[in-house]
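Reagents: none. Just compute today. Tubulin epsilon chain.
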Amino acid sequence: MTQSVVVQVGQCGNQIGCCFWDLALREHAAVNQKGIYDEAISSFFRNVDTRVIGDGGSISKGKIRSLKARAVLIDMEEGVVNEILQGPLRDVFDSKQLITDVSGSGNNWAVGHNVFGSLYQEQILEKLRKSAEQCDCLQCFFIIHSMGGGTGSGLGTFLLKVLKDEFPEVYRFVTSVYPSGEDDVITSPYNSILAMKELNEHADCVLPIDNQSLFDIISKIDVIVNSGKLGKTVKPKSLVTSSARALKNRQEKPFDAMNNIVANLLLNLTSSARFEGSLNMDLNEISMNLVPFPQLHYLVSSLTPLYTLADVNIPPRRLDQMFSDAFSKDHQLIQADPKHSLYLACALMVRGNVQISDLRRNIERLKPSLQFVSWNQEGWKTSLCSVPPVGHSHSLLALANNTCVKPTFVELRERFMRLYKKKAHLHHYLQVEGMEESSFTEAVSSLSALIQEYNQLDATKSMPVQDFPRLSIAM
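Predicted 3D structure written out:
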């Protein structure tokens, strides 16, 4: 069994990470009722005997003593990390695996990347090495951050290069939360474009998440709850709504439910690595099968059932409807419509009581309505995990390498250019040591090159699919 380490950077990264650990603990508690430390739990947790001082307290098997998350928490403000450490998850995190400052990055990528990157590089490396040493077989780093602020975008992408240099063989999966057009951080387009260049160069896979899409999903859930048509009862063990308890004394805000959707995405993404199934998908297989070209590593994600993640008493979706939902624009975690764009490849990660025949039947049913590149008409990767999410009979995570991600990047570039043409707020960045105006031109050129690659793929949409002759085998 392999292990993964989660690195949560900045306010957004730590809030999503907090939700992830809360849900992961509840998921394993529902499956592992005997309290035995097994391979499934070891993928993200260490078992520690807290009575032993130092590193000798790790226990590889037997009863669970005290679970410690395989995590590194980084934020240049103390607020969110302190809330976590005072909340119900305080014992899950090792205090030696935290890095905090008090001043914050001031919504400035350059401060996060250049100033705090240099200042904390050795500490970050030390904690990453420590986490790696505590794994028998480290397979993946999951980085969770936002693109719009200073710490998440700047220090988050600095960390990505550190991981690539120090652990070149370990996969780097990045969950990046992109700002909406109504974002309250004026400099978020600068931060996002500067961060995008680093993601292009140093990530293996990026799962872009759009704040606006998350907000729209939560708004639709609220409408359903308040309409009274399907019952207003929210289940007591809601997977989206109940995780707010993980942060001490917090009133539940829309962000709590939004963060929980992203946490559920990560739970389903790692389910095959954590639980048994008739058709397992290793994390390295995602990159191998879905990323045909190095820079085109942005995967659009959709999650179903999605509205029932709010655990409103909505009648469960029929199995076939669940597959259809995964390809509708209402279920995408960025504002995109994959059915009207071009697929390079697609992965379906199914959990629960679903048969391989169900999977194959639905792929055959959906294939005529989906357009794949001519050279990869059979570009499907599938997995079946027998353990469903808590409170559900089945679920589906779809990951699509699809040109529908392009409008998100185009809009981001337009917002960047509106500021950059006026040179607005540029001086805040240029006064940081190591920052030059060429950093901006190189970053937007990198993004433009990525957009052009998607344009070239889109240009092939109308091309006829070549039916190559197959090798005949004499019997």
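DSSP finds 15 helices and 13 strands in the chain.
Action item: order primers for follow-up constructs.
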